[in-house]
Amino acid sequence: MATMGGIYDLQGNAWAFSKGFYAIPAEISTIASHFPDPESLKRTGAVVAGVRYGFASGDPNKEIYVRNRTSGVVFCKCATCIVVAMHDKDMLPYTCIAAIRKIVEYLRRGEEEAVAQSRQAAAAWQPYIDHAVSSGIVTAGGIYDLQGNPCASSKGFGVQAKEIAAIVPYFGNPNSLAGRGASIGGVPYAFADAMMGNEIYFRKGKTGVVFFKCASAIVVGYHDADLMASTCRAAVRRLADRYLKGQ
After folding, report:
1. Confidence class of residue 217 from pLDDT cuts 50, 70 and 90?
2. Cβ distance 9 to 1 under 8 Å?
3. What pLDDT, on the 0 to 100 scale, is given for residue 113?
4. Cα separations (Å) of 111 from 80, 103, 217?
5. Average pLDDT for residues 110-119, to the nearest whole number?
6. How far is C-alpha 150 from the chain's CA centre?
7. What share of the chain is helix, strand, coil (3-state, %, to 5)?
8. pTM for the full predicted model
9. Are 48 and 22 spatial neighbours (Cβ–Cβ below 8 Å)?
10. Which member of 49, 54, 126, 155 has the lowest number of beta carbons within 10 Å of its beta carbon?
């Protein structure tokens, strides 16, 4: 079904892999950052286990396939992980791709059940969001699942599910957002800084939005021009820390 492969988290850390498959986290996370726009790999190609590949095909936020003259590698994205498989010249590409799609389908069913349970648990955090806003430590905010669906949010916070989902793949390689930024609530924001794997911060003038990634959710906080960025970011970190301890 595949020559070799593995399962990795969205930051590229290995959960399980076959003997002899030596892809490193930086390689996986770099490719993960291209899931929103797979064809962007046409310009750069990809390196897997130290071997260079060219872009072959892709399905946004689902699948990327790269290949060279002797082998190919397929990457399939789930909500919390990336399944990777390599085939050599003696195996048909479709055989490898079809096998990985079956594995991913099974994983996605399990993730959907876990996400549903996580959303129910996260909904209990609505009072914490309301308290953070009423206390003035964030202007607005919320907790969202990894697909961007709201679990708890403050009234009038207009961030959209597709905007959250578009940012999630970049936690593994946040610096790739430099120069492209993000749309949040329909408003373009510039990338400001990040903590690898956990936190991404965007700015527009004196306003900003911070995203903090937990295992199954994203905590988001917005501050206006009257609130210090450090106050909002510290509040989001504390809320994320409490949420993580409750997972």
Report:
1. confident
2. no
3. 64
4. 8, 12, 12
5. 62
6. 16
7. 35, 35, 30
8. 0.60
9. no
10. 155
Q: List C-alpha distances in Å: 60 to 33, 103, 239.
A: 11, 19, 31
Indicate the average pLDDT of the chain.
88
Residue 203, both tokens: 């700015």
Q: Could you tell me the two tokens for 185?
A: 């609530």
List the strands of the sheet with 217-223, edge to edge.
150-153, 140-145, 217-223, 207-213, 199-204, 187-195, 182-184
Overall CATH class of domain 124-246: alpha beta
The string over 90-122, giving b where at least 16 C-beta atoms fall within 10 Å of a residue's C-beta and e elsewhere, is ebeeeebbebbbebbeebbeebeeebeebbebb
| Whole-angstrom distance, CA of residue 6 vs CA of residue 82 | 8
C-alpha–C-alpha distance, residues 195 and 101, integer Å: 32
Task: Answer for the pair 214, 198: CB distance below 8 angstroms, yes or no.
Answer: no
Superfamily of domain 4-116: Dynein light chain 2a, cytoplasmic (3.30.450.30)
CA distance 21 to 7: 11
Q: Is the pLDDT of residue 140 over 90?
A: yes
pLDDT digits (tens, 9 = 90+) for 17-62: 888 888 888 899 889 889 889 999 999 999 999 999 999 999 998 9
CA distance 196 to 188: 22
Domain with CATH 3.30.450.30 in the chain: 4-116, 124-246
CA distance 84 to 63: 10
pLDDT at 218: 92
